[in-house]
Amino acid sequence: MKCAESAVVEAPAGVVVRVAVDAPQHSGLNAPLDYASERALASGSLVRVPLGKRELLGIVWPGDAVGEPAPALRPVTAVFDALPPLGPAWCRMLDFAAGYYQRSVGELASAVLPPQLRELSPEQLVARLRKLQKKLARPAAAEPVRPALAAEQAEAVARIQAQLAAPSPKPMLLFGVTGSGKTEVYLRAAEAALASGRQVLVLVPEINLTPQLEARFTERFAALLPEPMAIVSLHSALTPAQRLQNWLAAHLGRARLVLGTRLAVFASLPDLGLIVVDEEHDPSYKQQDGARYSARDLAVWRAHDAKVPVVLGSATPSLESWQHAESGRYERLTLTTRIGGGALPRVKLFDMKTLPPSAGVTTALTAPLLAALKERLDRGEQSLVFLNRRGYAPVLHCGECQWKSDCPHCSAWRVFHKRDRTLRCHHCGFTERVPQACPNCGNHDIAPLGRGTERLEEQLAEALPGARVMRIDADSTRRKGELEAQLQAVHDGDVDILVGTQMITKGHDFRRIRFVAAVNPDGALFSSDFRAPERLFALLMQAGGRAGRDAAGESPAEMWVQTWHRDHALYQALARHDYVRFARDQLAERQSAGLPPFAHLALLRAEARTAEAAQAFLAAAAELMQDDGVLVYPPVPHAVARVADVERMQMLLEAPQRGRLQACLRAWVPALIALKRERSAEFRAVLRWAVDVDPLAI
User: Which residues bind Zn(2+) 1 (predicted)?
Assistant: First the structure.
């Protein structure tokens, strides 16, 4: 057991407590530290303790006391007595997550607890709790009108309710086509759990989906949960004060239903009875910095540990979850038909090779596509055009000297944004005004190359005069409230053609859209990332799922995919809405290649001032690997090798069993910490390194 670093002080008589504090992993202080306390403290109690010259928030960690305090131990400086301790189940989950993702417990705890907790004194927290107690009750609400369940929905709800009463429930994969009523299944399952006095956790992948889902859950449960703060959300868009308030409501048991993004998987829920993970395939559930945890995987582990059901829902499940369902580890619930008689859109694969050769043959807006959009416009129907690239154009180009608008700080292009006449790097944020002439040769004739959503919006408005065209992407929704206002305009019928990135393909219930077009989707077919086809298929299925959700439309819903590779197996499966065939083919490929879910991966990432320094560190790390059963690949650069003048390299580890990989990492990571410390002069240029377990992007 390590001791808190300090000069020797006179410790009060009392006991020794183990406290998890935010000591970064690379400091070597990975375990909870020993402190002196005047009295015994319950595990999970929040305290303030000194560490070096700082005073930090800590958690009294479960474990055996080691007797009376030694004189060298520093004392606990404050105890948050007004707050009930974090429960044993929460501590177990944090312990597991820290071990699995190779971080220190204190570091992870600091990252997932509300930031304001770190700043408050016990007295200030008492004031916050008083404020929470004064929250006014909502006015009485009428009993909600519940829609009748389709036969498949009723069966799914019955099977989830059966698992609510099971002693060791099995994870459930709710596989339902877009528009098949998965949310209603979640609502009925949540209702059953709430009626039994339990808390419910619902996870969604994107912040912009949280308000609309919260509104739907609030409407349904306003009568069942009339108490103030009974339904709360947890995500990073909340103010620090809101996040603390909602977290306290969940921890105290006042919040019975918690909706949130990946961070909410760590919510303290003493009466947890059900976990729902909507769009479980979405890569947003994987944290991409710090402790790189997967909220979906932790939700499954948490449900197993707490012996409560977990429902993973998707129209395009991750191949890992699908394989678990195929093997019987997960129970599969299937919804094959849309609610209300709506039909899935007919998919038309438009072969770009059939267009006559011309200078503009690569254009996104082909004449047949414009004709199809005009036909829908004349009928008064809404259309959606999906292009997963924001900005006006990916790059500015000089035809004389071939200069392109590269970023001086990254190995990437700066994107041309026409509205504010800037060149903006989407990796480091470096922004400059568009030059009047080529900075290389002085040529005034520099032009955009390629196409982004901003340019597509402009060209649609020009080609279809009178059409009300709206763009929704990360650039058009920067200010607070903009996204909600734009989505409402779509729902109200004030938009004829919606243009956007993947932001508009997930979870939105657009009742008026009858036509979806995906332009320039082929790039992902040839990515070096083995997961790219899986992500593309999910994205296109989700995009197509926005069309035809209302069966009342006069014309059949249609999805138009413009591709140069019409016969590709991915597009052929998409045309048939055949996820099962796509998953079977992909899993067969993965098994023959020894890729997840049939193998288990970890990445060691290094960032340095030079690529040579990063590569040297990774090579030295490879030499420390002791397990011959774990395959170590040579170091390679990231897809974007330099960001903000920092060079990035990565090294892949592969093992046939998860346990083998974890055992290897447990021995290897401390050796890496020692390597960086003992050879600090040699690796001075190495700025950061991190282990990413179960990486999603390679």
Answer: 398, 401, 438, 441
Q: Which residue has the higher pLDDT, 544 or 29?
A: 544
- Kindly state the tokens that stand for 526: 């040839």
Question: Residue 698 falls within a domain, yes or no?
Answer: no
What is the b/e burial string over 110-123, where b = at least 16 CB atoms within 10 angstroms of the residue's CB?
bbbbbebbeebeee
Claim to verify: residue 207 and residue 328 sit in the same structural domain: yes
Residues 6+ apart with CB under 8 A from 596: 319, 320, 590, 694
568 and 580 co-located in one domain: yes
Residues whose CB falls within 8 Å of the CB of residue 399, separated by 6 or more in sequence, listed in order: 443, 445, 446, 447
| Distance in angstroms (rounded) separating the CA atoms of residues 516 and 16 | 64
Mean pLDDT, residues 442-453: 82
* 358: helix, strand or coil: coil
The model's pLDDT over 583-639, given as tens digits with 9 standing for 90+, comes to: 999 999 999 999 999 999 999 999 999 999 999 999 999 999 888 889 999 999 998
Contacts of 509 (CB under 8 A, 6+ apart): 549
Q: Is 3 annotated as a binding residue?
A: no
pLDDT of 67: 53
Do the domain assignments include residue 96?
A: no
401 annotated as a binding-site residue: yes
Span 532-554, mean pLDDT? 83
Structural domain that includes position 371: 343-390+452-588
Which H or E run includes 251? helix 240-251
Question: Does 664 show up as a binding residue in the annotation?
Answer: no
- Give the Å distances, CA to CA, from 631 to 244, 622, 693: 44, 10, 15
- Are 381 and 487 part of one and the same domain? yes
pLDDT tens digits, one per residue of 120-148: 999 999 999 999 888 867 777 778 889 99
Residue 372 sits in the same domain as residue 467: yes
